Amino acid sequence: MSAVLRPGDAEEVARIVRDTARRAATRTHSPLHPVSTGLNWGLGSGSPVEDGATVLDLSRLDRVRTLDPRAGFAVVEPGVTQGALAARLVGSERTLNLTGASQQTSVLGNLLERGVGLRRSRAEDLAGLELVLADGTFTRCGWWPDDRSGTVQPHGRGPSLNHVFTQSAMAVATAAVVRLLPRPEEVRVLPLTFAASELPAAVDTLRSWTAQHLIPATTKVYNPVAARTYGVADRCLVHICLTGDAGLVAAQARLVAENAGRHGSPFAPGPPYAADGHVHRAYAGLPDPDDTLFLRKTGCCARCLDTARGLLMFLPVIPFRGSAVARASELITAALRGRTAAPGVTMNVLDADTIDHVVTLGFPPRDAQAVADAHRTLDRLHETFAAEGHLPYRPDIDHPLPRPRGLLHERLRQALDPHGVFARGRF
Ligand SMILES: Cc1cc2nc3c(=O)[nH]c(=O)nc-3n(C[C@H](O)[C@H](O)[C@H](O)COP(=O)(O)OP(=O)(O)OC[C@H]3O[C@@H](n4cnc5c(N)ncnc54)[C@H](O)[C@@H]3O)c2cc1C
Fold first, then answer.
1. How far apart (Å, rounded) are the C-alpha atoms in residues 344 and 426?
2. Which residue from 41, 114, 121 has its CB within 8 A of the most atoms of ligand 1, so it is best to mutate?
3. Complete DSSP assignment for 193-232
4. CA distance 380 to 387
């Protein structure tokens, strides 16, 4: 068990870091592991990589400090959940790029993970960070509203530093400037289905549609296990999200239907319930206080998931090619150990060349053998995918990236945190 500190504001965070830094100088400290809401399910939730760390739980820092829909940004603290920020934007000209996780998860925590949003990578939503460095001093990087430039520019001017602190463990973030999306006139999610045996052809077709801009690079493909969440049995499901001008969306939807209906196409139109109102609301960035989709996916609420369900995730990045995705599917099946059930797999198109996979291993958490089997399966997934050059874009606490990470990385770490005030992270 790790000790947990729950500061109430950014000043208290700085005091804790300064205190830890004093003790780090004499090597009598417990390194800090900052989390925002700590709901990083499947990758370790709020737990640190190594025992002995102190969890710095920032969920009480939950102020939306600034909201400017006209300029397109919000300044949020770590405890601001995606549901809370989405609720503040209702009726405005902007929306939040929601993820498929619970509405209770942190906007800032997911930005720092470079998570996957429904409309684009969360990394693209980050404009600026307020940080407490390892000596307890405050600093900022990226773009801030009180900079002289009134236009949101995520890279700021000069060296672009925001992403030194994403997938990093070199500072505590006490606030972030988050970019907001223009609210689209129309949001339409088209459900298509295909037989699992048609996976290579379906992926190649989606790749060609994406490369030619018939559809945006936000498509999700669900294997038959994951498709059950949306009421689809024994087939794979595709969600294609079209957004923008209503006429354009209608024309695009017609073209997609024409292409999907061509002779030899692997696709069939999905039933309307496979992309119902809740799915549309999520892509539109609308809040859902009932967390309906999350409940459907996991069978329980955000607060009970860690105790009620055993969950491990493997997140490899795969080339967006039918043959590569089919091979990934073979590797997943071959990795299953003992009684581990066939996993739900969600494939997220990231661009015309890349499709990440979310492989979710579920198991009963109080069955020791099932727990061991799931962990053996995860180990095997890491081994076999790595052997074919497919690495996860986010590792879990049992599979942190190896060190050292190269000269520049080590020099940055030495410069920013020479005494190890912050606990070893996963990256
Ligand atoms: C059903 C389901 C669906 C999901 N869908 C998605 C999805 O669509 N997209 C996606 O990306 N993920 C998804 N996830 C995974 C995960 O739940 C989310 O990524 C979630 O946002 C991460 O938890 P969090 O927001 O509480 O971040 P936290 O757990 O608070 O933070 C994540 C990590 O960031 C670092 N960190 C956090 N805050 C700070 C800080 N203030 N300063 C310094 N470092 C910090 C820490 O290393 C921490 O471990 C899903 C999970 C489930 C179970």
1. 24
2. 41
3. EE-GGGHHHHHHHHHHHHHTTSS-TT-EEE-HHHHGGGT-
4. 11
41 Cβ inside 6 Å of ligand 1: yes
Q: Which atom of ligand 1 is nearest to the CA of 131?
A: 42
Cis peptide before 418 (omega within 30 of 0): no
Residue 148 has a pLDDT of 83
Q: Whole-angstrom Cα distance, residue 394 to residue 72? A: 28
Q: Where are the alpha helices (DSSP H) in 35-176?
A: 82-89, 107-113
HEC readout, 278-321: HHHHHHCCCCCCCCHHHHHHHCCCCCCHHHHCEEEEECEEEECC
Quote the ligand 1 centre to 15 CA distance (angstroms).
25
What pLDDT, on a 0 to 100 scale, did the predictor assign at position 157?
Answer: 84
Q: Is 79 in the pocket of ligand 1 (CB under 6 A)?
A: no
pLDDT at 404: 78
258 token code pair: 């024409």
Query: Tens of pLDDT along 29-78?
Result: 999 999 999 999 999 999 999 999 999 999 999 999 999 999 999 999 99
> What local confidence, expressed as pLDDT, does residue 150 receive?
85
Q: Is the CB of 270 under 6 A from ligand 1?
A: no
Look at residue 362 in the predicted model and tell me its pLDDT: 97
For residues 352-362, average pLDDT: 98
| Cβ atoms of residues 326 and 199 within 8 Å | yes
Alpha carbon distance 277, 286 (integer Å) = 11
Distance (Å) of CA 103 to CA 40, 175, 187, 228, 314: 13, 19, 20, 21, 22
User: Reduced to 3 states, what is the DSSP secondary structure of residue 173?
Assistant: strand
- Rounded CA gap, 220 and 355, in Å? 9
Give per-residue pLDDT as tens, 66-120.
999 999 999 999 999 999 999 999 999 999 999 999 999 999 999 999 999 999 9
Q: Which domains does the chain have, with CATH numbers?
A: 3-182 (3.30.465.10), 184-283+286-394 (3.40.462.10)
